[in-house]
Design a protein that fits this description.
The complex is a heterodimer. By secondary structure, chain A is an alpha/beta fold. Helix content of chain A is about 50%, strand content about 15%. The mean pLDDT of chain A is about 85. In chain A, strands 4-2-5-1-6-7-8 form a 7-stranded parallel sheet, with helices on both faces. Chain B folds into 2 domains: about 375 residues, TIM Barrel (Alpha-Beta Barrel), CATH 3.20.20.240; about 160 residues, 3-Layer(aba) Sandwich (Rossmann fold), CATH 3.40.50.280. Helices cover about 50% and strands about 10% of the residues of chain B. Chain B has a 5-stranded parallel sheet with strand order 1-10-9-8-7. The longest helix of chain B has 24 residues. Chain B is globular. The mean pLDDT of chain B is about 95. Classes of the chains: A alpha/beta, B alpha/beta. At the A-B interface, helix 2, strand 3 and strand 4 of A face helix 21, helix 22, helix 23, strand 12 and helix 24 of B. Strand 3 of chain A pairs parallel with strand 12 of chain B, so a sheet runs across the interface.
Chain lengths: ~325, ~650
């Protein structure tokens, strides 16, 4: 028999989030973003309370600036609202290294018709890493997943961030812009090994779009995929004119089913959680610190065994362990 | 007096407010005072295709212009003004095809025909995306509407200017003279290229169409440079006509333009100084005979304070009349022929503008440079530079950042008496009259006309003839627009602020550094970075001020959610909730601040977000500012608050105090 959940403010807030109360979700997102040490425990309790609660799909959308990611999301939102699904979107923008300031401009591309009570959009400044994802991105997505039928995270594809985004999503969509020359760059950077779905946008460009799509398909034949058992879909469409959106939604569903039936979904989530813990520890303690963790405290082992704790909790626990080990080194 | 005086330009005043009846009375009184043409200001619902009773129209009806919902409104607007004898300029863009249809239908009711009509529909959508913000449809659909109006009028209303390419609003958005020239030309090329695609347009027709493209320029206080800008533009336009479109008829190659002088530089501080500014700016576009404007509108001296009264507009009219009739300006040939200084400056502007034009054309033209935000980004950068120069004192604005010492101006002693107060009952009366119209029209005929309109838009045929029929059948502005909205969709233009700020934040003054340090300090006490929401409620699309606030907030280290234009109070509240912001900054210039801002504050409270402070910026008279503060707004900023860094500093204070950190 399951025991009653503890009656503390964090659990009450977590319960409200899972009910889909948007005001509570916003408050929860603010709370986990609070970096004052005295508030850390409350944030961890909140994240623990929602951990593993929801299996809603987590979808990443990435691509070069100007490829049409926001417009595509807008079209996806319209399609999903027609199917009566609630949607959370996390839009990540780079912030200035120098001033800490950031212009989070993406919201304004979400059309008025998309602004109803079934859509929630939070913009996030990628604070520490240039174009990369900060720790808070994964934690925010965890919270949003608990509240919605499907969640998206949109990142600017400058290279580094893709590696981070695959740790927090189930399916990754790459938005390609025809005739932009981005593709060659992405191929060179090895980015093509990550996405599960490619969407060649601006199909009204005709030949250029067809060429890009052919190049992509050829590139994918070269192998080197993260998941060699799954052949990614390459779709063509136009986010602006809402062309190809139904096909894209189908491709997302299909990939989700594949993840479920093949067991890859669980593998991804587990390895993603471990990678997030590892990244956090790497940022805080560096390689030297990480190497202090051995045996049962080795990151993958530790995270694998504690599937009910949040990534942040695990990172803090292992962080304490590292500090202890480092202290012993000094002694 | 010399017998060879030139004919003066058309003398106009941009006006319209409250209702068709009130505006008609104003027009007739202006004409009686010697105004020689009309310039119609429509209210924002009409400009963005909503009937006066639409939810988004709330608070906006009759505010910045006249509401025109149907043919009876249009007929009332021009009562006792014979349209075949009048030259009318209409500032209408997204819904230009519709308002021209109503105008033609009205002319027919008066017993005239479209062939007799002279005037201009502004109809320039590119600058709406870049600056003015009253766009509705996506670029592709908008270009189609424009080109269909051009194709229709060239034969059916041959004396009508179907499009007035506006560089005016680009300067208001911060454009330098070079940018003004280059982007206006790129814009005109995008229209002409589109028109040329039409197979029915032969060389002879193209030549006539080229000759009917007119421009609407701005004239700032640097009036020597502005004059050279007009001369450079005249040459570039003829060059484009000859080289790109093979036009040889010299008459068709002549640049025809109208002007409204600069509003951007009009100040709230010592507002009487604006009287002098306006007169000097008028010189810039009238001095040189070769590049003289065809029509002129002068703003009112007190625009930065609120809506001008009839007396204020009369002063602007008299300024024009003194220049045209009292001075000897119109007695001479071009004063500057042979001036090597003018020639050199003109040549420089011309060659730099040619390069910038080429950059845009290489990119794929004006429409592409809107969609990829290139032009917008350049404008935001120029505007940021200009405001920084005013803040630093590098650019002198008398009475604002220099020579602030002043005695109290007797002109504004009356407080709210020294501006026009729109009668609050105007909106209700307009809605009542709209309902009465809907009841008395033949609704079968109206429905039939709407179905025909829908079929025509879908078929790709020219929409002008069916729109004129729809006007006669009693279709309303909202109904006509709704049909097009459903087919074309609605557009949201890129803002250009993100990219602009990234490239413009490098040289920070000591004051900026100080505010940055405070933002860091308050952020660490809040536990997360200070986050602000910036947006514009209502239908007013003049986003320049909001954009500059967004850029500055980012430069001092805040996280800025820029939510853009045309937001309902509900959408603003939703954004504030989703984004978890510490403060909300609203910008509003249309005069509907009392209704909309108070609505935002009340809805925040109802959503349990009442603790989020709201600051407001805009053209807000003192009495209204008090009313807003009573409703819970914590700060109100007006055009006299030119120091954006100081505004930021106060925003940090507000957040800091309210959160007790």
């Amino acid at each position: 028999m399951q025991s009653e959940p503890p009656n503390d403010p964090e659990h009450a807030l977590a319960a409200a989030v899972t009910r889909g109360d948007l005001g509570s979700l916003s408050e929860a997102l603010n709370q986990i973003d609070d970096d004052r040490p005295e508030n850390r425990e409350a944030a961890l309790a909140l994240l623990d309370a929602i951990e593993g609660h929801s299996r809603s799909p987590r979808i990443g959308v990435t691509g070069a600036p100007g490829a049409g990611k926001s417009t595509l999301l807008d079209a996806l939102v319209a399609g999903l609202r027609e199917r009566d699904r609630s949607i959370g979107i996390l839009a990540v923008d780079p912030s200035s290294q120098r001033t800490g300031g950031a212009l989070l401009g993406d919201r304004m591309r979400l059309s008025s018709s998309a602004r109803d009570s079934g859509v929630f959009l939070r913009s996030l400044a990628a604070r520490d890493q240039l174009g990369g994802l900060s720790e808070i991105t994964g934690a925010s997505l965890d919270l949003m997943q608990a509240a919605f039928d499907i969640v998206f995270v949109e990142t600017v594809g400058v290279g580094q961030s893709e590696a981070g985004v695959i740790d927090i999503v189930d399916s990754l969509i790459f938005v390609a812009q025809p005739a932009s020359g981005d593709l060659i760059q992405f191929m060179k950077a090895g980015i093509l090994e990550w996405p599960d779905i490619f969407f060649v946008n601006k199909s009204d460009l005709g030949d250029a779009a067809r060429r890009t799509s052919a190049e992509l398909k050829a590139g994918l034949q070269l192998g080197g995929r993260r998941d060699p058992d799954y052949t990614p879909k390459v779709l063509c469409g136009s986010a602006r004119d809402a062309l190809g959106i139904d096909e894209l939604l189908e491709a997302i569903d299909e990939h989700q089913q594949y993840l479920e039936s093949s067991g890859q979904g669980d593998i991804r989530r587990t390895s993603g959680r471990a990678a997030r813990v590892r990244n956090t520890l790497m940022t805080r303690f560096g390689r030297y610190g990480l190497e202090r963790l051995t045996g049962p405290f080795e990151v993958e082992t530790y995270v694998g065994e504690k599937s009910h704790s949040s990534v942040e909790r695990l990172a803090d626990e292992l962080g304490l362990r590292i500090m202890k080990e480092l202290g012993r080194d000094v002694a | 007096m010399s017998p060879n005086r030139d004919r003066p330009w058309l003398i106009r005043t941009y006006s319209g407010h409250s209702s068709a009846r009130a505006s008609n009375a104003l027009y007739r009184s202006n004409l009686a005072k010697g105004q020689t043409g009309l310039s119609v200001a429509f209210d924002l619902p009409t400009q963005t295709g909503y009937d006066s009773d639409h939810p988004l129209a709330r608070g906006e009806v009759g505010k910045v212009g006249v509401p025109i919902s149907h043919i009876d409104d249009m007929e009332c607007l021009f009562q006792e003004i014979p349209l075949d004898k009048m030259n009318t300029s209409m500032t209408i863009n997204a819904t230009a095809a519709w308002l021209l249809s109503l105008y033609i239908a009205t002319a027919e009711r008066q017993g005239s025909t479209s062939v007799a009509l002279t005037g201009t529909t502004q109809n320039d959508i590119v600058k709406e995306y870049l600056s003015r913000g009253t766009f509705v449809f996506p670029p592709e659909a908008s270009m189609r509407l424009t080109s269909e109006m051009v194709a229709y009028t060239v034969d059916h209303a041959p004396r009508w200017n179907p499009i007035n390419i506006c560089s005016y609003h680009l300067q208001e958005a911060g454009a330098t003279p070079v940018q003004e020239i280059a982007y206006a030309m790129a814009n005109a090329i995008s229209v002409l290229d589109r028109v040329r695609e039409n197979e029915e347009v032969d060389d002879e027709t193209l030549s006539r169409i080229f000759g009917r493209i007119s421009f609407f320029l701005n004239a700032g206080i640097r009036f020597v440079e502005e004059m050279c800008k007009c001369r450079a533009m005249t040459r570039l336009w003829a060059e484009i006509g000859r080289d790109r479109y093979g036009i040889s008829d010299e008459k068709m190659l002549r640049l025809r333009y109208g002007v409204q002088v600069n509003s951007l530089g009009l100040t709230e501080a010592q507002p009487e100084n604006n009287i002098v500014r306006i007169a000097l700016e008028a010189l810039g576009v009238t001095l040189s005979k070769r590049a003289r404007t065809r029509s002129l509108q002068l703003p009112a001296w007190n625009e930065a304070l609120g809506l001008p009264r009839p007396w204020d507009q009369q002063l602007s009219l008299r300024t024009q009349q003194i220049l045209a009739y009292e001075t000897d300006l119109l007695e001479y040939e071009d004063l500057f022929d042979g001036s090597h200084v003018v020639e050199k400056l003109t040549a420089e502007l011309l060659s730099t503008a040619r390069e910038e034009l080429q950059t845009v054309l290489d990119m794929g033209g004006a429409v592409v440079a809107v969609e990829n935000a290139y032009m917008k980004q350049r404008l935001v950068e120029s505007h940021t530079k200009r405001l920084r120069a005013i803040e630093s004192g590098e650019l002198v604005v008398v009475g604002v950042n220099e020579y602030q010492e002043t005695v109290e101006s007797p002109l504004v002693e009356g407080g709210s008496e020294s501006i026009l107060k729109v009668d609050e009952s105007a909106e209700r009366e307009q809605i009542e009259s709209l309902e009465a119209f809907r009841n008395r029209r033949n609704s079968d005929e109206a429905s039939r006309a709407l179905r025909l309109l829908e079929d025509t838009v879908k078929s790709g045929a020219n929409i002008m003839p069916v729109s004129i029929e729809a006007a006669k059948a009693g279709v309303t502005t909202g109904e006509w627009s709704e049909v097009l909205r459903n087919i074309f969709g609605e557009y949201r233009a890129p803002t250009g602020v993100a990219a602009a700020s990234a490239s413009s934040g490098h040289e920070a003054s000591a004051e900026v550094e100080r505010v940055r340090a405070r933002v860091d300090d308050v952020s660490s006490r809040l536990g997360r970075r200070l986050k602000i929401l910036v947006g514009k409620p209502g239908l007013d699309g003049h986003s320049n001020g909001a954009e500059q606030i967004a850029v500055k907030a980012r430069d001092v280290g805040m996280e800025v959610v820029y939510d853009g234009i045309r937001l309902t109070p509900q959408e603003i509240v939703q954004s504030a909730r989703d984004e978890g912001v510490h403060i909300i900054g609203l910008s509003i210039l249309s005069g509907s601040h009392c209704v909309l801002v108070v609505d935002v504050v009340e809805q925040l409270r109802r959503a349990g977000l009442g603790e989020i402070p709201v600051v407001v910026g805009g053209i807000i008279p003192g009495d209204d500012a008090e009313e807003l503060k009573k409703a819970g707004v914590v700060r109100v900023y007006t055009p006299k608050d030119f120091d954006l860094t100081r505004i930021m500093s106060e925003i940090v204070d507000v957040v800091s105090e309210l959160n007790a950190v």
